[in-house]
């Protein structure tokens, strides 16, 4: 048997850091990453043959559970018809129509047209180029701790792996590019108003995670997104809502849908100009998208002057996986995800409290995480001020007990519809020892 240690050793000689995405390297929690060979339902299996209950879910896409039979079958059938054509397929329109129809409340939604790409990074990168092309302006506003992928303009004070590695940004980005992104504190509307007072004629767009989930979970304060929509509109700028992580995960119509349908209070009555999707929309295959108002979307080539393209865009296997996943993600799936999230988050909080570990439960729909602090955070500075050191021992105690958590305190925990009583039971059994480890720090 080849061990995880041996595989990591070999990987490090062939791949920078041994990984193809930085957080996978366990940098902030230490130890050897598990090399996975298969996954089914709520479980993943590593190269040593050890099975874990998984709370990463491929960072979101595996909403139905890993290797969901309907999705796998759809991909197998698509594969048999051809892997990639570089031409239009009927499935792309079917998926676009499905997304338009799902992301609406009472028949009204923000998406008139949708363009498919392969990653969330491409979706947000294209959305900001489109916003600049449409408005003829150059500046972009983002919020500290929000992650929108790794394009040059969006890495300033970003969440996810950038937060995990405590990097201010990334080398290799020109000062000119960095200067075109204004980074503001989250949940601070005065800061947004001040930025517009100063640069009204220059701001092309505000980009925001619909509910922040890349600095741990941090839901917007009531009415924040709606206020952003009002401010951007009154200044002729666009609002780009990034639902790469929340879209089709926290509900059928994403976080926007929870606000529009008043499940989240004080949030109804607004629409983003552009909205980005990734993760669940591709059902575990590389697929992402941006959508929005017809007038703006038609600025994209071939109709308009903003160029964007992709050899594998709308790939037939990815489209098949996306359609199968979205069709299977029924309202009852979201109810079950909410219940599972409540059970696991409450049990984790109880276990931490029993050991006297100060923490807050961070929740946005079925997404949750824990911040090791006794004051509810509002923004990235607050999140960073927590007792970060408590997470590594907690993480490793869970791993030793057969539960894979995200290897960073700055990431959300992801449940799936396959987390049944047995899987949840294994998580609950592991919590007391993990909470003890967190208390010992
Ligand atoms: N936006 C958000 C909100 C995300 O969470 C992510 C990825 N975690 C991205 C964009 C980038 O997506 P991708 O990793 O597919 O490029």
UniProtKB/TrEMBL annotation:
The record's GO molecular-function terms, alphabetically, read:
glutamate-1-semialdehyde 2,1-aminomutase activity
- Pathway(s) the chain acts in: Porphyrin-containing compound metabolism; protoporphyrin-IX biosynthesis; 5-aminolevulinate from L-glutamyl-tRNA(Glu): step 2/2
Query: Which keywords does this Swiss-Prot/TrEMBL entry list?
Result: Cytoplasm, Isomerase, Porphyrin biosynthesis, Pyridoxal phosphate
**Chief place of localization:** cytoplasm
SUPFAM superfamilies xref list: PLP-dependent transferases (SSF53383)
Q: According to the UniProt entry, which residues carry N6-(pyridoxal phosphate)lysine?
A: 279
**EC numbers for this chain:** 5.4.3.8
Instruction: Give the matching Pfam families.
Output: Aminotran_3 (PF00202)
tRNA processing among keywords: no
Q: What InterPro entries has UniProt attached to this entry?
A: 4pyrrol_synth_GluAld_NH2Trfase, Aminotrans_3, PyrdxlP-dep_Trfase, PyrdxlP-dep_Trfase_major, PyrdxlP-dep_Trfase_small
Q: Which reaction does it catalyse?
A: (S)-4-amino-5-oxopentanoate = 5-aminolevulinate
Q: Spell out the subcellular localization from the entry.
A: Cytoplasm
> By its UniProt entry, which Gene3D superfamilies does this protein fall under?
Aspartate Aminotransferase, domain 1, Type I PLP-dependent aspartate aminotransferase-like (Major domain)
Q: Which cofactor does it need?
A: pyridoxal 5'-phosphate
Family, per entry = Belongs to the class-III pyridoxal-phosphate-dependent aminotransferase family. HemL subfamily.
Could you give the subunit structure recorded for this chain? Homodimer.
For this protein, the record's NCBIfam families field holds:
hemL, PRK00062.1
Know the name of this protein? Glutamate-1-semialdehyde 2,1-aminomutase
């Amino acid at each position: 048997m080849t061990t995880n240690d041996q595989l990591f050793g070999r990987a490090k000689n062939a791949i920078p850091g041994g990984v193809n995405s930085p957080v996978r390297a366990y940098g902030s929690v230490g130890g050897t990453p598990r090399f996975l060979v298969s996954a089914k339902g709520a479980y993943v299996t590593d190269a040593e043959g050890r099975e874990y209950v998984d709370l990463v879910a491929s960072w979101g896409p595996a909403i139905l559970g890993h290797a969901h039979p309907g999705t796998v079958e759809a991909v197998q059938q698509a594969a048999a018809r051809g892997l990639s054509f570089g031409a239009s397929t009927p499935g792309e329109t079917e998926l676009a129509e499905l997304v338009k129809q799902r992301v609406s409340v009472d028949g009204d939604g923000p998406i008139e047209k949708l363009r498919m790409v392969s990653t969330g990074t491409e979706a947000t990168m294209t959305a900001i180029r489109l916003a600049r092309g449409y408005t003829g302006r150059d500046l972009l506003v983002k919020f500290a701790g929000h992650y929108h992928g790794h394009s040059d303009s969006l890495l300033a004070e970003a969440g996810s792996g950038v937060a995990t590695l405590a990097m201010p940004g990334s080398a290799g980005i020109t000062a000119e590019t960095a200067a075109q992104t204004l980074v503001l504190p989250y949940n601070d509307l005065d800061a947004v108003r001040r930025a517009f007072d100063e640069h009204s004629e220059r701001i092309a767009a505000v980009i925001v995670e619909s509910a922040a989930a890349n600095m741990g979970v941090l839901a917007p304060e009531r009415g924040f997104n709606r206020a952003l929509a009002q401010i951007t509109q009154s200044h002729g700028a666009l609002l780009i809502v990034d639902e790469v992580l929340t879209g089709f995960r926290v509900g059928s119509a994403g976080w926007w849908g929870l606000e529009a349908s008043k499940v989240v209070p004080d949030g109804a009555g607004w629409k983003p100009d552009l909205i980005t999707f990734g993760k669940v929309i591709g059902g575990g295959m590389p697929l992402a998208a941006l959508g929005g108002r017809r007038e703006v979307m038609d600025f994209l080539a071939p109709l308009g002057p903003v160029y964007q393209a992709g050899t594998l865009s709308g790939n037939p296997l990815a489209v098949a996986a996306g359609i199968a996943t979205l069709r299977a993600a029924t309202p009852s799936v979201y109810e079950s995800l909410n219940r599972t999230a409540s059970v696991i988050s409450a049990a984790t909080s109880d276990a931490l409290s029993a050991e006297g570990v100060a923490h807050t439960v961070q929740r946005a729909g079925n997404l949750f995480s824990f911040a090791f602090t006794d004051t509810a955070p509002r923004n990235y500075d607050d999140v960073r001020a927590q007792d970060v050191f408590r997470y590594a021992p907690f993480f490793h105690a869970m791993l030793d007990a057969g539960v894979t958590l995200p290897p960073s305190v700055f990431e959300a925990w992801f449940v799936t519809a396959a987390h049944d009583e047995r899987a949840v039971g294994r998580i609950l059994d592991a919590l007391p020892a993990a909470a003890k480890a967190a208390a010992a720090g």
